[in-house]
Every structure is written in structure tokens, then in C-alpha cells.
Specification:
heterodimer; A: alpha/beta; Rossmann fold; 24 helices; B: mainly alpha; ABC transporter involved in vitamin B12 uptake, BtuC; two-stranded antiparallel sheet; globular
Chain lengths: 587, 299
């Protein structure tokens, strides 16, 4: 045995409960069509599978990414109509028709998804509703193409090894497709993309500032969800052999949303649970027929009020004592922050930076430069423009005028995620953690870089967690941590990308004296490792202990620059902080 | 030439009248949104319920038509209060998503409740001014002014005026405005915030119900009528600028006119689509609407 053993790659845990669920799922897929053999129940199985697939699409867009879509039935319809028209009127092969349908959904999803660039919340809800309603209108009224309200019959089934000419065989096919999609959606959750999606759901601004291209990821999520829904529609069309526009209207879009919410939107299993429940519920409540939908509406409200995470979330809550934490291997090596260039070279240069908000002049022509290896403090009274400058540097605000050179390139106008990839990381004045994700996942999002392999990402993330001293908290959900630890997680998250420049917006705020001393030690260690830091801070003792240089701002303008101790003695600085004694006394 | 002019006049007038109803429902949206930041997807169902209450009281219980309207409005007030207590209040501290879903759930409940009670066949309601031999109205310059349309438009404008006076010149109105702008501050100033919000829901459901009663004679009363009405009203609020009272009315009137012209000149079967097409264009090109302001998230 060599000594390398202790430094093995942080291997993925061999066993995850998801694999067991997949294996069990395979058994269920085989058994179900053998147990339910009547034509009626077999059809229900097919319907459940198709709806389940459409609902899984919503897991990606709503559950993971947090973007509402009320157009899922339209995409479902696009898939169904592609197969229906393809195999009856156009006479093409089933698989080709399916691919055409998926391609159409892909395009429509990408177009609709691109509206998320500027819209969120209820606006997005409305735009997807519009899309859904216009789809239904066209579907019903463009009779020449869609067959109109009468629908299309005699739809073919796919050739797949054996002829799928019995309902039972087709049910196997449909359920297998459901299992496949569920497996993919489950797998997506813990990939770099899946983590980026969930980071957007938790805090879009922080995700962008950490290097997640939020616009791109949201469009991808929408497109994926549309394609998955179209697949569900195709399975449905060939299962029922007849379709009409009624199966793809707004009511169904709402039903899909209800399924994913009732089941639990954050997990593939929850979606299947919800889809199963709402497929079979009408059958169990048949005696109630006329008021069935009243109860259905009522049930949605009750689940939303009492089970915010859905049934599966509730089950997980009950079963959390049985859950085993993820075993994480220690990192190989330490963080390599800020070590990519010569100490003393200029890495950031701000020239005549100006930012106006309407009539408010937040920053008014500020110049300063930061050299590699410095801890540069930005200080000044409240409202002097410190945080605005941090937001301008990291790209969250676009300056009204002025230039920002970072590592030789002009970064004005770049998206925050781009700037983060260029090597600038930041923390936020008010914590912006991904609250529902674990410490490990939070830091992983910060560690993700283009073209870096998952193993490297994990390594960097673990190194950052070890650096701030929280490896034993790695599996904790962030919102459950005490405030001081949350601040450390934010620091680790920013460090995990191995930045050249770290922007810290009031890292000491809200910490007690012991925690502040620990923070000072951390900052000094980071600086010793070669990391350059721009620090906004109100605690002058902290500033004078760590800062090598300080720039003093007042009313958006620079009034002094020098070492921390020196600038604090400048009359202009004293005046800015304490007010002008003569003026105040009217002398 | 004159004929086409009068036809266009007819289209404008009809569009404005229907748009007035969109505006009324939209006003309810805006009121609730301003007070609570909740987008109520069940707003259209208030219109449907108002119309059905009128049907039940006037046809079912054989009440006098105007007495029926008054009683129906009282019932609407009760619906609004109940809605606030059961749907809004438990979710008041949650994000927009659960609230949207809950209001959609409520809308499913209302629709199917109406279906279960009144059945799927559409009901007909008499217009406010009844004339012998069907539709009453007068013809001016080649344009036929249907009384019901005129009344709808007048009621809409009257209510907007009254609401303006109420908010600008009464203490209660000021308190409601204060509540909608800053709940915590209002609470500290001793304004009963919970009561104000309840009042807002009651007023919004009254507006919706009234809108429903006004269109009832123009369209048929069905359990589905609220869904499209509500969505179009929502479209109107966004086009006008979310949360803006002027925007809601103007947006509603504009959508009504666009719809009536679209139906006449392009195609009638896509009538319900025009509003949504316009809305999508708005959302993509000017998401903050006519009067709205762009708001950015602070870092």
C-alpha cells in the first residue's frame, strides 16, 4: 500500500438511494401491466405514464429552476399531434414523427424560455398562459392541419422490438419510458447543470454573481421541460390511438402543475407520486363525479397550505431519521487562490466610475487601483457609495460612465457570471445563500467553472469548506445554520472558484468579537496565500488590522487614499464621519 | 365610406363596452395586488359567481331584478371575505408561487361548484333596461347604441371616478392606500391592516361580481365565463402597467377594442387570442406596461 491511498480522489459514494429506487422502479414497470390486465386499467396505466412524463418536465423547470410554466399541456400536445399527424396523414415512421415533435417542442420551448430573460414570477405565469391559450385556439380552429375539434384517430404505435399491438405491451413501453425519463431527471439534479438550476431557484442574483449564466440555464430548463412534455404527449397519442384538442387545453396545464406540486416539485419521485395520485383519484372518487373537481381544487389549496413541499417532501421529512448523510472525502491539496500572477502587478483599475439612479448620484467619478496581494478597504459613512461600487465591479449594475479594467480587460457591460469566470468573486452585505441547499451544494455551485471536470470541482469545493473549517457541517441545509456559519459558507462559496480578486461586502457585520477575530485570521491567511481582497467594512478596528490600503468615499466621491491608519487621521475623513464641528456649531 | 365609418364606430363602441367589463375585473386585480402583492387568478370567477347569483335570485327565487342585484352584491361581499380568510390569509407570508397555485385551485373549485349546481347549459339574464321585442338601444350617426353596453360603460367610468374620490378624499381610502404601500408602517401607525386587507378583498369581489352581472345579458352565463374574463382582465392589468389603476381601465378598454376589431377584420374564431397576442408583445417589448415603472432587485 502506498501513501497515496489517503489522497484518493474524493470518490462519489458508491450507493445512493436513487439507484435502489430505479431498480425497484424497473420491477414495478414489469409487474404493473401483469397485475392490471383489464383494458380499462391498462389504459389508465398508459395515461398515468404519459402524464407522469409531462409532470417530470415540470420538475426540471419549476422544481429545480423555480420558473413557473402553465404551458406544459401545449408542449404535451405538440408531441401528441406530431405523432398523430405523422403516422396518419404524412405517413412517416413513428420514430421520425416523434423526433419531429420533439424538435418542434424544443424550438417552442426555447422561444418561450427566452422570455425568462426579462420576466419572472407572475409575468412568466401569464406569458405561459397566453402561449397555452393561443396554442389551444390554433389546435381547435386550424382544421386543415390539426383536424379541428374532431381530433385525429387511427394513430399508429411505434415498432419497438416486438409489435406493440396489445394494450399490455404498450403499457410496458410507456412505463419504461417513464422510468427512463425519471432516471434522467433524477440524475440531472446533482450534475453541474442541475445544481446551477437549483441555485437559480434559491437566489438568482447570487447564482449569477457566482458564475452561473442564469439566462442560459433558464432557457435550457424551459427547453428540456418542453421536450420531456412532448415525449409524454407522443406516448399518450399512440396509447389512446385517438386524440382531440380537449386533452391539451389550459385545464390540463393546471392539472400538470397540480400533480407536480401535490407530489413534490423538487424530486422525480414526487412528480410520479403526484401524477399517479391525480390519475387514479378520479377513479376512486367516481361516486362523487359532479363535485370531484371541486374536491380537486380544494385538495390543491390544502396541500399548498399544509404541505409546502408536497407529499414526497412530507414523506422525506418523516423519514429523515433514516437518511444517511453523504460521505465526503477530504480534499486533495489546498485552495490555490489568487496565485496566478506576480505580486504587486495592477489587477483592477477603476477610472472615473459614475453611477446615477434617476436623480440620485450614488457614485460620482471615483478612481482607484488594486494591486495583486493587497487588501484594499473601501470605507466611508453610510450612503457614500461603497456597496454600489462593489455591485458595479461585479457587474450587477452597469455604470453610467467610467471604466473598469480587470486583469487587463474592460469588464464594463459584461454579465456578472462572465466577470466571475474571469476571476472575481464576491460576498453580499445581506446573506444571499442558497438557503434550501446544503453547505456542500452551495460551495459546489461556487466552485463550478466552465471546462472543469466534476472531480476538480468537488476538490475545490471541499478545499474551500475545509479552509473555513466547516467540513463537519457539509451536509447541513444552509438555512439551519447559525448566522456566523452562514457567513463562512458564503466566504467558502466565493473562494471555491479560486478567484484572483475577492470582493467582500461587510464581512464583519453581525459577528461577535470572537467570530470577528476568526474572520481577521482567515483574511490574513488568505492574503498570505496571495489573494487580493477589496473590502467594504464599517468596523475600523477590523479594517486597520487587515487592510494594506484604504480608499475613503463620501457622497460618491473619493476623499482620501492611503494606509488605513493614516487616512483615518485625515481631517477630511474625520469630518466625513463625525461631521464638521465648526459648521455644526455655527461658528 | 359612411357605412364603413359607422361600422368602425360600432366596433369601437362594442369594444369599449366589453373592455369596460375587463377593466372592472382588472381593477379588482389591481386592488388586491396593491394591498397584498398577490395575483389573484380567481378574480374572473368572481364575475362568474356574481352572474350566477343574479341568475339564482332572479330566476330561481323570482326576486325583483334590482333587488336581486343588491342581494347578489351582498353575497359577493361575503365571498370576498371568505376568500380572504381561506385562501389569502394562510399563505400571506409565502412566496408568489404557492399563492398563485392556491388561487388557481380556488378557481377550479368555483368553476366546478357552479357546474355542479347550475349544470352545463348556459343561462340567460335580462338586460337592465328591458324593451319589448328584444334589444333596446338608440341609433346615432349610424351607430347602434345598445342600452346594456351604454350602462356597462357608464358604470365602469362611474366606479373609477368614485374610487378616485374615495382614495383621495376619505380617511378610509387613505388608510387603505397606506396599507398597500407599507404594511408594517401602517400597522405601527395603528391602522388595522388585517381589516383593510379584508376590505380590499370584499371590494374586489364586488367589482368582479358587478362586471359579471353587466356582461350576463350580453353573453350567456356559463361556469366557464369567468376563466377567459379573468385572464383578459389580467392581460389588461399587465398592458396598463402592473398595479396601476389607470392602466387597468385603459388596458381593459384597449383590449376590448382590439378584440372587436380583430374579430371583424381578421377572424372571429381567434377572437379570444388577440388579447393574449397583444399581451405577449407587451411582455416582450415593454414588460412594465404603459404606466408601470421598471423595478430592479437590490443586491
Amino acid at each position: 500500500m502506498t501513501s497515496n491511498d489517503s489522497k484518493k480522489a474524493p470518490s462519489r459514494p458508491r450507493f445512493r438511494p436513487g439507484y435502489l429506487a430505479l431498480a425497484l422502479g424497473a420491477v414495478v414497470v414489469v409487474l404493473l401491466p401483469l397485475i392490471f390486465t383489464s383494458r380499462y386499467t391498462t389504459n389508465l396505466l398508459i395515461l398515468g405514464a404519459a402524464w407522469g412524463i409531462a409532470t417530470l418536465g415540470l420538475v426540471v423547470v419549476l422544481g429545480y429552476t423555480g420558473q413557473i410554466s402553465l404551458a406544459q399541456a401545449a408542449f404535451y400536445g405538440i408531441g401528441a399531434y406530431a405523432v398523430a399527424l405523422g403516422t396518419t396523414r404524412w405517413g412517416v415512421n413513428w420514430w421520425l414523427a416523434l423526433i419531429l415533435g420533439l424538435a418542434a417542442a424544443f424550438l417552442a420551448g426555447a422561444v418561450l424560455g427566452s422570455t425568462t430573460r426579462q420576466l419572472g414570477g407572475h409575468y412568466l405565469a401569464m406569458v405561459t398562459i397566453c402561449f397555452q391559450i393561443i396554442y389551444t385556439l390554433i389546435n381547435t380552429n386550424w382544421i386543415a392541419v390539426t383536424g379541428g375539434p374532431d381530433g385525429i384517430s387511427n394513430i399508429k404505435r411505434p415498432p419497438f422490438l416486438v409489435p406493440l399491438n396489445t394494450a399490455q405491451r404498450y403499457a410496458w413501453f410507456a412505463l419504461a419510458a417513464l422510468l427512463l425519463v425519471a432516471g434522467l431527471v433524477w440524475w440531472l439534479r446533482d450534475t453541474a447543470l442541475g445544481r446551477a438550476m437549483r441555485a437559480i431557484r434559491e437566489n438568482e442574483l447570487a447564482a449569477e454573481a457566482l458564475g452561473v449564466d442564469t439566462r442560459r440555464v433558464k432557457v435550457i430548463a424551459f427547453t428540456m421541460s418542453a421536450v420531456i412534455a412532448a415525449l409524454g404527449g407522443a406516448i399518450y397519442a399512440s396509447g389512446y390511438l385517438y386524440i382531440s384538442p380537449d386533452s391539451f387545453n389550459f385545464d390540463h396545464a393546471v392539472a400538470f402543475l397540480a400533480m407536480v406540486l401535490v407530489g413534490g416539485s423538487d424530486s422525480a419521485l414526487g412528480a410520479i407520486l403526484g401524477a399517479t395520485l391525480l390519475t387514479f383519484l378520479p377513479e376512486w372518487l367516481r361516486d362523487l363525479q359532479r363535485i370531484y373537481l371541486v374536491i380537486y381544487g380544494c385538495a390543491i389549496i390544502l396541500v399548498i397550505v399544509f404541505m409546502p413541499e408536497g407529499l414526497w417532501g412530507y414523506a422525506k421529512l418523516l423519514g429523515r431519521r433514516f437518511a444517511r448523510p453523504l460521505v465526503l472525502a477530504p480534499a486533495r491539496g489546498t485552495l490555490r487562490v489568487g496565485g496566478r500572477g506576480k505580486a504587486g502587478e495592477e489587477i483592477l483599475r477603476v477610472e472615473h466610475l459614475v453611477k446615477h439612479f434617476g436623480g440620485v448620484k450614488a457614485v460620482e467619478g471615483v478612481d482607484f487601483a488594486v494591486r495583486r496581494g493587497e487588501i484594499h478597504a473601501l470605507i466611508g459613512p453610510n450612503g457614500s457609495g461603497k456597496t454600489t461600487i462593489i455591485n458595479l465591479l461585479s457587474g450587477l449594475y452597469v455604470p453610467t460612465a467610467g471604466r473598469i479594467h480587470f486583469l487587463g480587460g474592460d469588464v464594463v457591460g459584461l454579465r456578472p457570471s462572465r466577470i466571475a469566470h474571469n476571476g472575481m468573486a464576491r460576498s453580499f452585505q445581506n446573506l444571499r445563500l442558497f438557503r434550501e441547499l446544503t453547505v456542500w451544494e452551495n460551495v459546489l455551485v461556487g466552485a463550478q467553472r466552465e471546462k472543469s471536470r466534476e472531480a476538480e470541482t468537488r476538490d475545490r469545493a471541499m478545499a474551500a469548506i475545509e479552509f473555513v473549517g466547516l467540513p463537519d457541517k457539509a451536509n447541513e441545509i444552509c438555512r439551519n445554520l447559525p448566522y456566523g456559519h452562514q457567513k463562512l459558507v458564503e466566504l467558502a462559496r466565493a473562494l471555491a472558484g479560486e478567484p484572483d480578486l475577492l470582493l467582500l461586502d461587510e464581512p464583519g457585520a453581525g459577528l461577535n468579537q470572537t467570530e470577528k477575530q476568526e474572520l481577521i485570521q482567515l483574511l490574513k491567511r488568505l492574503n498570505a496565500m496571495g489573494l487580493t481582497i477589496v473590502l467594504v467594512e464599517h468596523d475600523m478596528s477590523l479594517v486597520s488590522q487587515v487592510a494594506t490600503l484604504a480608499t475613503v468615499l463620501n457622497f460618491g466621491e473619493k476623499i482620501a487614499e492611503g494606509t488605513a491608519d493614516a487616512v483615518l487621521r485625515y481631517p477630511a475623513v474625520v469630518e466625513a464621519y463625525l461631521g464638521n464641528r465648526e459648521v455644526a456649531l455655527g461658528v | 365610406m359612411f357605412e364603413s365609418l359607422s361600422m368602425n364606430g360600432q366596433l369601437v363602441f362594442a369594444g369599449l363596452a366589453i373592455g369596460g367589463v375587463y377593466g372592472l375585473v382588472a381593477l379588482g386585480f389591481v386592488m388586491i395586488f396593491r394591498a397584498t402583492n398577490v395575483v389573484n387568478f380567481a378574480q374572473g370567477e368572481f364575475a362568474m359567481l356574481g352572474a350566477y347569483f343574479l341568475v339564482a335570485l332572479w330566476q330561481g327565487l323570482k326576486l325583483n331584478y334590482f333587488a336581486a342585484i343588491v342581494v347578489a352584491l351582498l353575497m359577493m361581499a361575503a365571498v370576498g371575505l371568505l376568500f380572504e380568510i381561506t385562501v389569502y390569509y394562510p399563505l400571506r407570508n409565502r412566496s408568489f408561487l404557492p399563492v398563485i397555485i392556491a388561487t388557481i385551485g380556488a378557481s377550479i373549485m368555483f368553476q366546478n361548484g357552479a357546474l355542479a349546481i347550475f349544470g352545463p347549459s348556459p343561462e340567460k339574464v335580462r338586460p337592465v333596461i328591458q324593451t319589448v321585442g328584444g334589444i333596446g338601444g338608440i341609433t346615432l350617426a349610424g351607430v347602434f347604441f345598445d342600452y346594456q353596453y351604454v350602462i356597462t360603460l357608464v358604470v365602469t367610468l362611474l366606479l373609477v371616478g368614485l374610487q378616485y374620490l374615495f382614495f383621495e378624499y376619505t380617511i378610509l381610502g387613505k388608510k387603505m392606500q397606506a396599507t398597500s404601500q407599507d404594511k408594517d408602517m401602517a400597522r405601527l401607525l395603528g391602522i388595522p391592516v388585517v381589516f383593510m386587507i379584508a376590505l380590499t378583498f370584499i371590494y374586489s369581489s364586488l367589482l368582479g361580481g358587478l362586471g359579471g352581472m353587466l356582461v350576463a345579458p350580453i353573453f350567456f352565463v356559463t361556469h366557464k365565463m369567468g376563466a377567459t374574463l379573468g385572464l383578459k382582465a389580467f392581460a389588461a392589468t399587465i398592458c396598463g402597467g402592473f398595479g396601476d389603476v389607470r392602466g387597468a381601465i385603459l388596458g381593459g378598454l384597449a383590449l376590448g377594442v382590439i378584440e372587436s376589431f380583430g374579430a371583424a377584420y381578421i377572424s372571429a374564431i381567434y377572437k379570444d387570442g388577440y388579447s393574449f397576442l397583444v399581451l405577449m408583445l407587451f411582455l416582450l417589448l415593454r414588460p412594465h406596461g404603459i404606466f408601470g415603472e421598471k423595478v430592479a432587485e437590490k443586491a
